[in-house]
Design the sequence.
């Protein structure tokens, strides 16, 4: 087993990536509609296009990673890509210098540039988790620690974006505030990725002996039942979670009239994630990783039934509800990241071809498609209800918005459970596969 401090340092890289990622996930759509005053359908379309492009860029980055030499290359990628990634994040929040069509094009171009830079750096980092150790316990530890550092970044972004940006921007809470926060996050994120890249060393894990083509990688992944079922379940889960999370700020602003309480709710959701991760790690050792999915998803679905049945009209109650839901949601994320590296050995045994970068690249593509679907559901669901930014919403509009928030996640979570039933990586399955491959 690899020494835990080394794994812990590696997992710290997720703090940097989540400074970027949580900003994009929690605030960017809201920034488009509320600070830039873009129509919600336009904002959702920009976000969806960029998200799908992000997925394509991730898959390309993954397949290219499989065709490069092993060794310290991934660490060098982190170091070389850290500064362009930080600059691209700042450009994403740079207000357009013109209005109309060219202003929208400017916003889209900045978003596409960031997604490309993020894929080029994040996919090699994810592939490192398969190279740093082949032990499933180490991988589960890395997944848990990454989530802890990621949720810490979530708290910083959720609670710090507006006040930090307002301070750096001279007191404003509009577009310049988001830009100021993005600059600070970019500086911190760049420094952390430089540290991780410089300190990374691979364990004695056998790298791929072949440099597969894209077509060969896709054929291998298509024949990998563990990978296919896990990622389809992940997509359904991501649609559900994204619809819920992206609705938080809108719900507090338009249903409860307390936008600041929404930012506080996001911060508390991040904090409970950090607290809940060790509990899910403990349960995983007791009941197995796949069984954990069914437990977490069932609890989330029960929570959504409660939300659909009872209208929550107090900010404190809604904050408590979201915190409870997030404690369950984090279990689903933990299961996915703990299981995904294990699909590499399953696929290698099944097809004879070991692909690592393509596993993480295609998983990222599918995740981004799911996020795009969720964003489209929100944008066009809210738009069809008659939503207009920064005005009082009618009762009919609010009713449709509320049902969008409740019913779509409930259906997609149920679908995720049906798909996970087909996954072959039950308790102890990966350890048996590794022993077979080692001739034990």
Sequence:
């Amino acid at each position: 087993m690899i020494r835990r401090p080394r794994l812990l340092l590696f997992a710290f890289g997720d703090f940097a990536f989540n400074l970027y990622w949580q900003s994009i996930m929690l605030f960017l759509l809201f920034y488009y509609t509320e600070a830039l005053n873009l129509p919600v359908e336009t904002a959702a379309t920009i976000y969806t296009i960029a998200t799908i492009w992000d997925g394509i860029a991730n898959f390309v980055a993954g397949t290219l990673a499989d065709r490069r030499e092993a060794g310290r290359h991934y660490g060098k990628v982190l170091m070389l890509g850290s500064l362009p990634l930080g600059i691209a994040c700042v450009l994403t929040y740079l207000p357009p210098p013109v209005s109309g069509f060219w202003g929208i094009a400017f916003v889209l171009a900045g978003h596409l540039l960031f997604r490309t830079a993020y894929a080029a750096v994040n996919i090699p980092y994810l592939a490192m988790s398969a190279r740093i150790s082949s032990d499933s316990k180490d991988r589960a530890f890395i997944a848990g620690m990454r989530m802890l550092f990621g949720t810490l970044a979530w708290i910083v972004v959720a609670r710090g974006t507006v006040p930090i940006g307002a301070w750096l921007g001279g007191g404003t809470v509009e577009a310049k505030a988001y830009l100021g926060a993005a600059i600070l996050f970019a500086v911190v994120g760049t420094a952390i990725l430089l540290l991780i890249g410089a300190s990374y060393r691979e364990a004695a894990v056998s790298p791929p002996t072949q440099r597969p083509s894209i077509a060969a990688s896709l054929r291998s992944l298509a024949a990998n039942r563990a990978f296919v079922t896990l990622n389809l379940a992940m997509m359904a889960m991501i649609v559900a979670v994204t619809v819920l999370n992206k609705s938080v700020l809108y719900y507090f602003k338009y249903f409860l009239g307390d936008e600041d309480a929404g930012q506080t709710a996001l911060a508390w959701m991040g904090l409970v994630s950090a607290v809940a991760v060790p509990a899910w790690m403990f349960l995983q050792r007791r009941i197995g990783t796949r069984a954990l999915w069914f437990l977490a998803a069932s609890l989330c679905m029960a929570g959504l039934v409660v939300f659909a049945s009872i209208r929550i009209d107090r900010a404190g109650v809604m904050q408590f509800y979201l915190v409870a839901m997030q404690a369950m949601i984090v279990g689903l994320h933990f299961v996915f990241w703990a299981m995904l590296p294990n699909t590499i050995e399953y696929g290698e045994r099944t097809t004879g071809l070991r692909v690592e970068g393509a596993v993480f690249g295609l998983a990222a593509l599918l995740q981004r498609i799911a996020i795009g679907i969720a964003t489209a559901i929100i944008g066009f669901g809210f738009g069809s209800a008659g939503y207009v930014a920064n005005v009082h919403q009618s009762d009919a509009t609010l009713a449709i918005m509320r049902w969008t928030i409740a019913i779509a996640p409930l259906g997609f979570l149920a679908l995720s459970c049906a798909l996970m039933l087909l996954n072959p990586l039950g308790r102890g399955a990966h350890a048996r596969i590794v022993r077979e491959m080692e001739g034990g």
User: Anything to note?
Assistant: Residues 101 and 107 are 10 Å apart (CA to CA).
